[in-house]
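Sample A.
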Amino acid sequence: MVRVHYNLLAIAVVVGLLFSNPAVAKVSAEVAGLLGVVPGLGHVVQGETIEGIAWFGGVAVFFASGFGVLPFSKVSLHTGTNIWQYSIYDVYRDTGEKRKYKSTLIYDTLAAYNPLNLIDWVSPLQLGANAYVTYRGAPDTVYRGPKRFFLGVIYQTPNAMAEEALYRGYVFPVVSKVTHFKPLGALTSAVLFSFGHMLYGYSFKQVLAGTVNNVANSLLWCLQTHLNGMDIRPSIFTHMWIDVMIYHRWRNAGSPIESSSLSGAVFSPSTSLGYRLFF
Protein backbone atom coordinates (compact mmCIF):
# COMPACT_ATOMS: atom_id res chain seq x y z
CA MET A 1 0.00 0.00 0.00
CA VAL A 2 2.88 2.36 0.76
CA ARG A 3 4.26 1.65 -2.72
CA VAL A 4 0.89 2.60 -4.16
CA HIS A 5 1.04 6.04 -2.60
CA TYR A 6 4.64 6.52 -3.69
CA ASN A 7 3.31 5.90 -7.21
CA LEU A 8 0.56 8.45 -6.64
CA LEU A 9 3.04 11.09 -5.56
CA ALA A 10 5.24 10.31 -8.56
CA ILE A 11 2.28 10.70 -10.93
CA ALA A 12 1.34 13.96 -9.24
CA VAL A 13 4.84 15.40 -9.58
CA VAL A 14 5.19 14.37 -13.25
CA VAL A 15 1.80 15.76 -14.20
CA GLY A 16 2.47 18.92 -12.24
CA LEU A 17 5.86 19.50 -13.84
CA LEU A 18 4.88 18.75 -17.43
CA PHE A 19 1.32 19.90 -17.82
CA SER A 20 0.29 22.37 -15.10
CA ASN A 21 -0.21 25.61 -17.02
CA PRO A 22 -3.07 28.13 -16.76
CA ALA A 23 -5.77 27.22 -19.25
CA VAL A 24 -7.51 29.59 -21.66
CA ALA A 25 -10.99 29.53 -20.21
CA LYS A 26 -13.71 28.32 -22.58
CA VAL A 27 -16.15 27.74 -19.74
CA SER A 28 -16.11 29.17 -16.24
CA ALA A 29 -13.79 27.67 -13.64
CA GLU A 30 -16.81 26.45 -11.69
CA VAL A 31 -18.22 24.61 -14.70
CA ALA A 32 -14.81 23.21 -15.61
CA GLY A 33 -14.50 21.73 -12.13
CA LEU A 34 -18.00 20.27 -12.35
CA LEU A 35 -17.11 18.66 -15.68
CA GLY A 36 -14.14 17.15 -13.86
CA VAL A 37 -16.55 14.70 -12.21
CA VAL A 38 -15.64 12.79 -15.37
CA PRO A 39 -11.86 12.68 -14.82
CA GLY A 40 -10.01 14.97 -17.23
CA LEU A 41 -13.12 16.21 -19.05
CA GLY A 42 -12.83 19.72 -17.66
CA HIS A 43 -9.23 19.92 -18.83
CA VAL A 44 -10.13 18.71 -22.32
CA VAL A 45 -12.96 21.24 -22.64
CA GLN A 46 -10.56 24.00 -21.61
CA GLY A 47 -8.08 22.93 -24.28
CA GLU A 48 -5.67 21.05 -22.01
CA THR A 49 -6.14 17.77 -23.85
CA ILE A 50 -2.86 16.12 -22.88
CA GLU A 51 -3.30 16.94 -19.22
CA GLY A 52 -6.91 15.74 -19.34
CA ILE A 53 -5.83 12.42 -20.81
CA ALA A 54 -3.16 12.10 -18.14
CA TRP A 55 -5.67 12.65 -15.33
CA PHE A 56 -8.17 10.26 -16.89
CA GLY A 57 -5.49 7.63 -17.39
CA GLY A 58 -4.32 7.87 -13.78
CA VAL A 59 -7.83 7.48 -12.40
CA ALA A 60 -8.74 4.73 -14.86
CA VAL A 61 -5.66 2.61 -14.09
CA PHE A 62 -6.13 2.72 -10.34
CA PHE A 63 -9.88 2.19 -10.52
CA ALA A 64 -9.40 -0.75 -12.90
CA SER A 65 -6.87 -2.19 -10.47
CA GLY A 66 -9.25 -1.72 -7.58
CA PHE A 67 -11.99 -3.58 -9.42
CA GLY A 68 -9.57 -6.39 -10.31
CA VAL A 69 -9.47 -5.66 -14.05
CA LEU A 70 -5.70 -5.17 -13.94
CA PRO A 71 -3.34 -7.51 -12.06
CA PHE A 72 -2.30 -5.08 -9.31
CA SER A 73 -4.02 -6.60 -6.32
CA LYS A 74 -2.65 -4.09 -3.80
CA VAL A 75 -3.82 -1.04 -5.72
CA SER A 76 -7.05 0.26 -4.20
CA LEU A 77 -9.91 2.48 -5.31
CA HIS A 78 -8.71 4.93 -2.69
CA THR A 79 -5.71 5.95 -4.79
CA GLY A 80 -7.83 6.50 -7.88
CA THR A 81 -10.25 8.52 -5.77
CA ASN A 82 -7.40 10.75 -4.58
CA ILE A 83 -6.31 11.48 -8.14
CA TRP A 84 -9.89 12.15 -9.22
CA GLN A 85 -10.54 14.55 -6.33
CA TYR A 86 -7.42 16.57 -6.99
CA SER A 87 -8.05 16.72 -10.74
CA ILE A 88 -11.33 18.59 -10.13
CA TYR A 89 -9.52 21.22 -8.09
CA ASP A 90 -6.66 21.36 -10.59
CA VAL A 91 -8.80 22.49 -13.52
CA TYR A 92 -10.84 24.83 -11.30
CA ARG A 93 -7.67 26.45 -9.97
CA ASP A 94 -5.92 26.77 -13.33
CA THR A 95 -8.86 28.40 -15.10
CA GLY A 96 -10.03 30.63 -12.25
CA GLU A 97 -8.90 34.03 -11.13
CA LYS A 98 -5.17 34.59 -10.75
CA ARG A 99 -4.11 33.75 -7.21
CA LYS A 100 -1.73 35.62 -4.98
CA TYR A 101 -0.10 32.39 -3.88
CA LYS A 102 1.60 29.57 -5.76
CA SER A 103 -0.57 26.47 -6.00
CA THR A 104 0.46 23.44 -8.02
CA LEU A 105 0.62 19.75 -7.26
CA ILE A 106 4.19 20.13 -6.07
CA TYR A 107 3.54 23.14 -3.84
CA ASP A 108 0.43 21.53 -2.38
CA THR A 109 2.35 18.35 -1.60
CA LEU A 110 5.16 20.26 0.11
CA ALA A 111 2.60 22.24 2.13
CA ALA A 112 1.99 19.16 4.27
CA TYR A 113 5.53 19.49 5.65
CA ASN A 114 5.76 23.28 6.01
CA PRO A 115 5.80 24.26 9.72
CA LEU A 116 4.98 27.87 8.80
CA ASN A 117 1.40 26.66 8.36
CA LEU A 118 1.22 26.61 12.15
CA ILE A 119 1.17 30.42 12.24
CA ASP A 120 -2.61 30.84 12.18
CA TRP A 121 -4.53 29.84 15.32
CA VAL A 122 -6.72 27.17 13.70
CA SER A 123 -3.91 24.69 13.09
CA PRO A 124 -2.52 24.63 16.66
CA LEU A 125 -6.07 24.41 18.04
CA GLN A 126 -7.03 21.40 15.92
CA LEU A 127 -3.71 19.62 16.22
CA GLY A 128 -3.59 20.14 19.97
CA ALA A 129 -7.14 18.89 20.53
CA ASN A 130 -6.63 15.84 18.33
CA ALA A 131 -3.24 15.08 19.91
CA TYR A 132 -4.78 15.22 23.40
CA VAL A 133 -7.57 12.81 22.53
CA THR A 134 -5.38 10.49 20.47
CA TYR A 135 -2.38 10.21 22.80
CA ARG A 136 -3.88 10.53 26.27
CA GLY A 137 -3.62 6.78 26.88
CA ALA A 138 -7.15 5.61 26.25
CA PRO A 139 -7.50 1.83 26.76
CA ASP A 140 -8.30 1.13 23.10
CA THR A 141 -5.11 2.69 21.81
CA VAL A 142 -1.70 1.16 21.30
CA TYR A 143 1.67 2.73 20.57
CA ARG A 144 3.03 1.57 17.23
CA GLY A 145 6.51 3.14 17.22
CA PRO A 146 8.33 5.58 14.88
CA LYS A 147 8.16 3.33 11.81
CA ARG A 148 4.37 3.39 11.89
CA PHE A 149 4.49 7.17 12.30
CA PHE A 150 6.66 7.76 9.23
CA LEU A 151 4.62 5.32 7.17
CA GLY A 152 1.59 7.36 8.19
CA VAL A 153 3.24 10.52 6.84
CA ILE A 154 3.77 8.86 3.46
CA TYR A 155 0.32 7.34 3.39
CA GLN A 156 -1.66 10.35 4.56
CA THR A 157 -0.07 13.12 2.48
CA PRO A 158 -1.97 12.33 -0.77
CA ASN A 159 -5.16 11.66 1.19
CA ALA A 160 -5.15 15.05 2.92
CA MET A 161 -4.08 16.88 -0.23
CA ALA A 162 -6.83 15.34 -2.36
CA GLU A 163 -9.61 15.83 0.19
CA GLU A 164 -8.66 19.44 0.90
CA ALA A 165 -8.46 20.09 -2.83
CA LEU A 166 -12.02 18.87 -3.44
CA TYR A 167 -13.88 19.97 -0.32
CA ARG A 168 -12.07 23.18 0.64
CA GLY A 169 -10.45 24.03 -2.70
CA TYR A 170 -13.50 23.53 -4.92
CA VAL A 171 -16.79 22.91 -3.07
CA PHE A 172 -16.31 25.60 -0.43
CA PRO A 173 -15.48 28.53 -2.76
CA VAL A 174 -17.90 27.51 -5.52
CA VAL A 175 -20.96 27.18 -3.27
CA SER A 176 -19.92 30.38 -1.48
CA LYS A 177 -19.73 32.25 -4.79
CA VAL A 178 -22.98 30.87 -6.20
CA THR A 179 -24.98 31.58 -3.02
CA HIS A 180 -23.07 34.73 -2.02
CA PHE A 181 -22.96 33.26 1.49
CA LYS A 182 -19.70 31.73 2.74
CA PRO A 183 -21.20 30.00 5.79
CA LEU A 184 -23.42 27.98 3.45
CA GLY A 185 -20.37 27.09 1.36
CA ALA A 186 -18.58 25.92 4.49
CA LEU A 187 -21.59 23.92 5.68
CA THR A 188 -22.02 22.28 2.26
CA SER A 189 -18.35 21.34 2.23
CA ALA A 190 -18.62 19.93 5.75
CA VAL A 191 -21.75 17.88 5.03
CA LEU A 192 -20.31 16.41 1.83
CA PHE A 193 -17.02 15.66 3.58
CA SER A 194 -18.84 13.92 6.41
CA PHE A 195 -20.99 11.97 3.95
CA GLY A 196 -17.82 10.94 2.16
CA HIS A 197 -16.61 9.44 5.44
CA MET A 198 -19.86 7.83 6.46
CA LEU A 199 -19.37 4.81 8.68
CA TYR A 200 -21.46 1.65 8.74
CA GLY A 201 -21.91 -1.15 11.24
CA TYR A 202 -21.70 1.00 14.35
CA SER A 203 -24.19 2.14 16.96
CA PHE A 204 -26.22 5.28 16.37
CA LYS A 205 -24.20 7.20 18.97
CA GLN A 206 -20.92 6.19 17.35
CA VAL A 207 -22.08 7.16 13.88
CA LEU A 208 -23.42 10.45 15.23
CA ALA A 209 -20.15 11.13 17.03
CA GLY A 210 -18.13 10.41 13.90
CA THR A 211 -20.39 12.68 11.86
CA VAL A 212 -20.14 15.54 14.35
CA ASN A 213 -16.38 15.09 14.51
CA ASN A 214 -16.02 15.20 10.72
CA VAL A 215 -18.33 18.20 10.35
CA ALA A 216 -16.51 20.10 13.10
CA ASN A 217 -13.09 19.42 11.60
CA SER A 218 -14.32 20.33 8.13
CA LEU A 219 -15.79 23.64 9.32
CA LEU A 220 -12.50 24.51 11.00
CA TRP A 221 -10.61 23.69 7.80
CA CYS A 222 -12.99 25.96 5.88
CA LEU A 223 -12.33 28.70 8.43
CA GLN A 224 -8.60 28.17 8.07
CA THR A 225 -8.90 28.37 4.29
CA HIS A 226 -10.95 31.56 4.58
CA LEU A 227 -8.45 33.17 6.96
CA ASN A 228 -5.64 32.41 4.51
CA GLY A 229 -7.29 34.00 1.47
CA MET A 230 -8.77 30.70 0.19
CA ASP A 231 -5.32 29.11 0.17
CA ILE A 232 -5.79 25.40 0.96
CA ARG A 233 -2.16 24.70 1.81
CA PRO A 234 -2.49 25.43 5.57
CA SER A 235 -5.51 23.12 5.82
CA ILE A 236 -3.59 20.43 3.93
CA PHE A 237 -0.93 20.66 6.64
CA THR A 238 -3.44 20.45 9.50
CA HIS A 239 -5.48 17.68 7.90
CA MET A 240 -2.45 15.55 7.12
CA TRP A 241 -0.94 15.66 10.62
CA ILE A 242 -4.29 14.87 12.25
CA ASP A 243 -4.60 11.83 9.99
CA VAL A 244 -1.02 10.82 10.79
CA MET A 245 -1.77 10.84 14.51
CA ILE A 246 -4.85 8.68 14.01
CA TYR A 247 -2.98 6.27 11.72
CA HIS A 248 -0.08 6.01 14.14
CA ARG A 249 -1.88 5.54 17.42
CA TRP A 250 -5.19 3.75 17.02
CA ARG A 251 -5.34 -0.03 17.08
CA ASN A 252 -7.60 -0.40 14.02
CA ALA A 253 -5.94 2.27 11.89
CA GLY A 254 -5.22 0.99 8.43
CA SER A 255 -8.14 -1.42 8.38
CA PRO A 256 -10.65 -0.07 5.86
CA ILE A 257 -14.32 -0.41 6.62
CA GLU A 258 -17.30 0.21 4.41
CA SER A 259 -17.74 3.84 3.42
CA SER A 260 -19.17 5.87 0.57
CA SER A 261 -17.38 5.83 -2.78
CA LEU A 262 -16.47 9.50 -2.36
CA SER A 263 -13.82 8.74 0.23
CA GLY A 264 -12.79 5.16 -0.45
CA ALA A 265 -11.31 3.50 2.63
CA VAL A 266 -11.88 5.26 5.95
CA PHE A 267 -10.50 4.41 9.33
CA SER A 268 -12.70 3.30 12.20
CA PRO A 269 -10.74 5.42 14.72
CA SER A 270 -12.47 8.53 13.41
CA THR A 271 -15.70 7.25 14.93
CA SER A 272 -14.05 6.39 18.25
CA LEU A 273 -12.32 9.78 18.31
CA GLY A 274 -15.62 11.59 17.85
CA TYR A 275 -17.28 9.37 20.43
CA ARG A 276 -14.71 10.30 23.05
CA LEU A 277 -14.96 14.00 22.22
CA PHE A 278 -18.75 14.31 22.27
CA PHE A 279 -20.14 11.53 24.51
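Sample B, a different protein:
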Amino acid sequence: MIRNISLFALLTLITLSVYGQADPSFRRNQFSALLINPAQAGANAADEVSIVAGKSLIGFTGAPQTVSALGNFRLFKNMGLGTSCYNDQLGPISTNRASLDFAYHLKVNKDWRIAMGLRGTIANITVDLPSLSTTVINDPHMQGVLNSGTRFDAGWGLLAYSKHFYVGLAQPRIFNTKFTNATLTQVTEGKSFGAYIGGDVAMSKDWSLRPIGMVRYIKGLPTIVDLSATATYQRMFDIGVNYQLSSSIGLIAGHEINKKLYVGYNYNYPLAQLNRVSSQS
Protein backbone atom coordinates (compact mmCIF):
# COMPACT_ATOMS: atom_id res chain seq x y z
CA MET A 1 0.00 0.00 0.00
CA ILE A 2 1.31 3.45 -0.89
CA ARG A 3 1.77 5.38 2.33
CA ASN A 4 3.04 8.72 1.10
CA ILE A 5 2.48 10.94 -1.93
CA SER A 6 4.74 13.93 -2.52
CA LEU A 7 4.31 16.81 -4.93
CA PHE A 8 7.18 19.21 -5.41
CA ALA A 9 7.63 22.13 -7.80
CA LEU A 10 10.99 23.67 -8.61
CA LEU A 11 11.01 27.17 -10.11
CA THR A 12 14.42 28.48 -11.04
CA LEU A 13 15.84 31.21 -13.24
CA ILE A 14 19.33 29.84 -13.75
CA THR A 15 20.95 28.21 -16.74
CA LEU A 16 21.10 24.42 -16.47
CA SER A 17 24.07 22.63 -17.99
CA VAL A 18 23.59 19.85 -20.52
CA TYR A 19 24.32 17.18 -17.95
CA GLY A 20 21.68 18.62 -15.66
CA GLN A 21 19.13 17.87 -18.36
CA ALA A 22 20.61 14.45 -19.07
CA ASP A 23 19.98 13.54 -15.44
CA PRO A 24 17.69 16.08 -13.75
CA SER A 25 19.46 17.61 -10.78
CA PHE A 26 16.58 18.72 -8.59
CA ARG A 27 17.88 20.37 -5.46
CA ARG A 28 15.14 18.82 -3.36
CA ASN A 29 17.14 15.63 -2.89
CA GLN A 30 14.65 14.39 -0.28
CA PHE A 31 12.19 13.49 -3.03
CA SER A 32 14.40 13.10 -6.11
CA ALA A 33 17.37 11.05 -4.88
CA LEU A 34 15.97 7.98 -6.65
CA LEU A 35 16.62 9.70 -10.01
CA ILE A 36 20.32 9.70 -9.19
CA ASN A 37 20.83 6.56 -7.11
CA PRO A 38 19.03 3.22 -7.65
CA ALA A 39 20.19 2.11 -4.18
CA GLN A 40 17.57 4.51 -2.76
CA ALA A 41 14.86 2.01 -3.74
CA GLY A 42 13.31 0.71 -0.52
CA ALA A 43 15.40 2.96 1.74
CA ASN A 44 12.52 5.19 2.81
CA ALA A 45 10.57 4.55 5.99
CA ALA A 46 7.37 4.32 3.92
CA ASP A 47 6.42 3.53 0.35
CA GLU A 48 6.31 6.75 -1.62
CA VAL A 49 5.07 8.19 -4.91
CA SER A 50 6.48 11.59 -5.91
CA ILE A 51 5.88 14.07 -8.72
CA VAL A 52 8.68 16.61 -9.16
CA ALA A 53 8.51 19.42 -11.72
CA GLY A 54 11.07 22.08 -12.57
CA LYS A 55 11.30 25.05 -14.94
CA SER A 56 14.19 27.43 -15.58
CA LEU A 57 14.74 30.71 -17.41
CA ILE A 58 11.14 31.81 -17.07
CA GLY A 59 10.06 33.93 -20.04
CA PHE A 60 12.79 32.66 -22.40
CA THR A 61 11.91 30.68 -25.53
CA GLY A 62 13.01 27.07 -25.20
CA ALA A 63 13.50 27.37 -21.43
CA PRO A 64 14.51 24.10 -19.72
CA GLN A 65 11.67 22.24 -18.02
CA THR A 66 11.39 18.77 -16.53
CA VAL A 67 8.56 16.67 -15.11
CA SER A 68 9.34 13.45 -13.22
CA ALA A 69 7.23 10.77 -11.58
CA LEU A 70 8.85 8.37 -9.10
CA GLY A 71 7.75 5.36 -7.10
CA ASN A 72 9.82 3.99 -4.22
CA PHE A 73 8.66 0.74 -2.61
CA ARG A 74 9.99 -1.79 -0.12
CA LEU A 75 9.19 -5.26 -1.48
CA PHE A 76 10.47 -7.34 1.39
CA LYS A 77 12.51 -6.71 4.51
CA ASN A 78 15.79 -6.42 2.60
CA MET A 79 14.70 -5.54 -0.95
CA GLY A 80 13.47 -2.40 -2.66
CA LEU A 81 11.90 -1.56 -6.00
CA GLY A 82 12.04 1.84 -7.66
CA THR A 83 10.40 3.21 -10.78
CA SER A 84 10.94 6.57 -12.41
CA CYS A 85 10.05 8.28 -15.65
CA TYR A 86 10.58 11.81 -16.86
CA ASN A 87 10.19 14.13 -19.77
CA ASP A 88 12.77 16.86 -20.24
CA GLN A 89 12.75 19.79 -22.65
CA LEU A 90 15.82 21.94 -23.31
CA GLY A 91 15.34 24.13 -26.38
CA PRO A 92 15.27 21.75 -29.36
CA ILE A 93 16.28 18.75 -27.21
CA SER A 94 13.55 16.43 -25.92
CA THR A 95 14.42 13.54 -23.62
CA ASN A 96 12.14 10.75 -22.39
CA ARG A 97 13.41 8.13 -19.97
CA ALA A 98 11.88 5.34 -17.91
CA SER A 99 13.86 3.33 -15.35
CA LEU A 100 13.38 0.30 -13.14
CA ASP A 101 15.57 -0.01 -10.04
CA PHE A 102 16.25 -2.92 -7.73
CA ALA A 103 18.17 -2.63 -4.46
CA TYR A 104 19.32 -5.04 -1.78
CA HIS A 105 19.67 -3.71 1.78
CA LEU A 106 22.16 -5.34 4.13
CA LYS A 107 21.95 -4.69 7.87
CA VAL A 108 25.43 -3.91 9.21
CA ASN A 109 24.47 -3.34 12.85
CA LYS A 110 21.50 -2.08 14.84
CA ASP A 111 21.90 1.45 13.43
CA TRP A 112 23.33 1.19 9.92
CA ARG A 113 22.43 -0.47 6.61
CA ILE A 114 24.22 -0.63 3.27
CA ALA A 115 22.22 -0.77 0.03
CA MET A 116 23.42 -1.84 -3.41
CA GLY A 117 21.26 -0.91 -6.37
CA LEU A 118 21.07 -1.69 -10.09
CA ARG A 119 19.12 0.18 -12.77
CA GLY A 120 17.74 -0.62 -16.19
CA THR A 121 16.70 2.28 -18.42
CA ILE A 122 14.94 2.76 -21.73
CA ALA A 123 15.24 6.17 -23.36
CA ASN A 124 14.68 8.26 -26.47
CA ILE A 125 16.31 11.60 -27.24
CA THR A 126 15.51 13.88 -30.16
CA VAL A 127 17.09 17.16 -31.31
CA ASP A 128 14.74 19.23 -33.49
CA LEU A 129 17.29 21.25 -35.48
CA PRO A 130 14.74 22.85 -37.88
CA SER A 131 13.05 24.54 -34.89
CA LEU A 132 16.14 26.72 -34.37
CA SER A 133 16.55 30.13 -35.97
CA THR A 134 19.75 30.47 -37.98
CA THR A 135 21.50 33.24 -39.93
CA VAL A 136 21.66 31.01 -43.03
CA ILE A 137 18.39 30.48 -44.91
CA ASN A 138 17.67 26.80 -45.50
CA ASP A 139 20.95 25.81 -43.87
CA PRO A 140 21.46 22.17 -45.00
CA HIS A 141 23.18 21.35 -41.73
CA MET A 142 20.05 22.30 -39.76
CA GLN A 143 17.35 20.49 -41.73
CA GLY A 144 17.41 17.10 -40.08
CA VAL A 145 16.03 15.88 -36.76
CA LEU A 146 18.56 13.94 -34.70
CA ASN A 147 17.06 10.91 -33.01
CA SER A 148 18.79 8.43 -30.75
CA GLY A 149 16.13 5.80 -31.38
CA THR A 150 15.20 3.51 -28.53
CA ARG A 151 18.22 3.17 -26.27
CA PHE A 152 18.85 0.86 -23.36
CA ASP A 153 21.13 1.81 -20.51
CA ALA A 154 22.12 0.67 -17.03
CA GLY A 155 23.27 2.23 -13.79
CA TRP A 156 24.47 1.38 -10.31
CA GLY A 157 24.49 2.93 -6.87
CA LEU A 158 25.64 2.48 -3.28
CA LEU A 159 24.00 3.87 -0.16
CA ALA A 160 24.97 3.75 3.52
CA TYR A 161 22.28 5.01 5.87
CA SER A 162 20.96 5.09 9.40
CA LYS A 163 17.91 6.72 10.94
CA HIS A 164 19.55 10.15 10.96
CA PHE A 165 22.38 10.11 8.37
CA TYR A 166 23.10 8.84 4.86
CA VAL A 167 25.77 8.95 2.16
CA GLY A 168 25.38 7.83 -1.45
CA LEU A 169 27.47 7.29 -4.58
CA ALA A 170 26.02 6.48 -7.99
CA GLN A 171 26.44 6.35 -11.74
CA PRO A 172 22.88 6.61 -13.04
CA ARG A 173 23.94 5.95 -16.64
CA ILE A 174 26.84 3.77 -17.75
CA PHE A 175 26.74 4.18 -21.53
CA ASN A 176 26.97 7.18 -23.85
CA THR A 177 24.12 8.09 -26.21
CA LYS A 178 25.19 8.86 -29.78
CA PHE A 179 23.37 10.49 -32.69
CA THR A 180 24.37 10.29 -36.34
CA ASN A 181 22.86 11.65 -39.56
CA ALA A 182 23.99 12.46 -43.10
CA THR A 183 25.32 15.95 -42.43
CA LEU A 184 26.43 15.93 -38.82
CA THR A 185 29.17 13.90 -37.23
CA GLN A 186 28.41 12.01 -34.05
CA VAL A 187 26.98 13.99 -31.17
CA THR A 188 27.44 12.32 -27.81
CA GLU A 189 25.48 12.76 -24.60
CA GLY A 190 27.90 11.83 -21.81
CA LYS A 191 27.45 9.79 -18.67
CA SER A 192 27.48 11.32 -15.20
CA PHE A 193 28.42 10.51 -11.61
CA GLY A 194 26.85 11.75 -8.39
CA ALA A 195 27.75 11.71 -4.70
CA TYR A 196 25.79 13.12 -1.78
CA ILE A 197 25.60 13.21 2.00
CA GLY A 198 22.84 14.33 4.33
CA GLY A 199 21.10 13.91 7.63
CA ASP A 200 18.11 14.60 9.82
CA VAL A 201 19.24 16.17 13.09
CA ALA A 202 16.90 16.93 16.00
CA MET A 203 17.43 20.50 17.21
CA SER A 204 14.70 20.57 19.86
CA LYS A 205 11.38 18.95 20.66
CA ASP A 206 9.66 20.72 17.75
CA TRP A 207 12.48 21.50 15.33
CA SER A 208 14.79 19.36 13.22
CA LEU A 209 17.35 20.20 10.52
CA ARG A 210 18.03 18.34 7.26
CA PRO A 211 21.34 19.38 5.63
CA ILE A 212 22.22 17.94 2.21
CA GLY A 213 25.35 18.24 0.08
CA MET A 214 25.62 16.91 -3.48
CA VAL A 215 28.33 16.84 -6.16
CA ARG A 216 27.62 16.04 -9.82
CA TYR A 217 30.35 15.35 -12.37
CA ILE A 218 30.43 14.69 -16.09
CA LYS A 219 33.57 14.61 -18.23
CA GLY A 220 34.12 17.83 -20.14
CA LEU A 221 31.68 19.94 -18.10
CA PRO A 222 32.08 21.92 -14.86
CA THR A 223 31.53 20.04 -11.62
CA ILE A 224 28.33 21.21 -9.93
CA VAL A 225 28.01 21.45 -6.15
CA ASP A 226 24.61 21.84 -4.46
CA LEU A 227 24.15 22.57 -0.75
CA SER A 228 20.87 22.90 1.13
CA ALA A 229 19.53 23.02 4.68
CA THR A 230 15.86 22.62 5.57
CA ALA A 231 14.38 23.24 9.01
CA THR A 232 11.24 21.29 9.90
CA TYR A 233 8.70 22.32 12.53
CA GLN A 234 6.73 19.52 14.20
CA ARG A 235 7.30 17.35 11.12
CA MET A 236 4.69 19.44 9.30
CA PHE A 237 6.24 22.68 8.00
CA ASP A 238 9.52 23.08 6.11
CA ILE A 239 11.55 26.20 5.45
CA GLY A 240 15.06 26.20 4.05
CA VAL A 241 17.73 27.53 1.71
CA ASN A 242 19.79 26.02 -1.08
CA TYR A 243 22.95 27.18 -2.81
CA GLN A 244 24.57 26.05 -6.03
CA LEU A 245 28.26 26.95 -6.07
CA SER A 246 28.88 30.16 -8.07
CA SER A 247 25.47 29.85 -9.68
CA SER A 248 22.34 30.47 -7.58
CA ILE A 249 20.71 30.74 -4.19
CA GLY A 250 17.15 29.74 -3.36
CA LEU A 251 14.38 29.24 -0.84
CA ILE A 252 12.58 26.02 0.05
CA ALA A 253 9.09 25.71 1.53
CA GLY A 254 6.93 22.67 2.17
CA HIS A 255 3.95 21.39 4.11
CA GLU A 256 2.93 17.89 5.11
CA ILE A 257 -0.84 18.13 4.67
CA ASN A 258 -1.37 14.72 6.24
CA LYS A 259 0.55 11.49 6.72
CA LYS A 260 0.09 10.62 3.03
CA LEU A 261 0.48 13.93 1.23
CA TYR A 262 3.31 16.48 1.09
CA VAL A 263 3.50 19.60 -1.09
CA GLY A 264 6.66 21.68 -1.57
CA TYR A 265 8.11 24.55 -3.59
CA ASN A 266 11.64 25.75 -4.39
CA TYR A 267 12.57 29.13 -5.94
CA ASN A 268 16.10 29.95 -7.07
CA TYR A 269 17.70 33.29 -7.89
CA PRO A 270 20.78 33.44 -10.16
CA LEU A 271 24.05 34.84 -8.87
CA ALA A 272 25.64 34.91 -12.33
CA GLN A 273 25.25 37.64 -14.97
CA LEU A 274 21.84 36.30 -15.99
CA ASN A 275 20.20 38.32 -13.19
CA ARG A 276 20.98 41.50 -15.15
CA VAL A 277 18.42 40.60 -17.81
CA SER A 278 15.82 38.96 -15.56
CA SER A 279 13.03 40.71 -13.66
CA GLN A 280 12.97 38.43 -10.65
CA SER A 281 12.77 39.84 -7.11
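Observation for Sample B: DSSP finds two helices and 18 strands in the chain.
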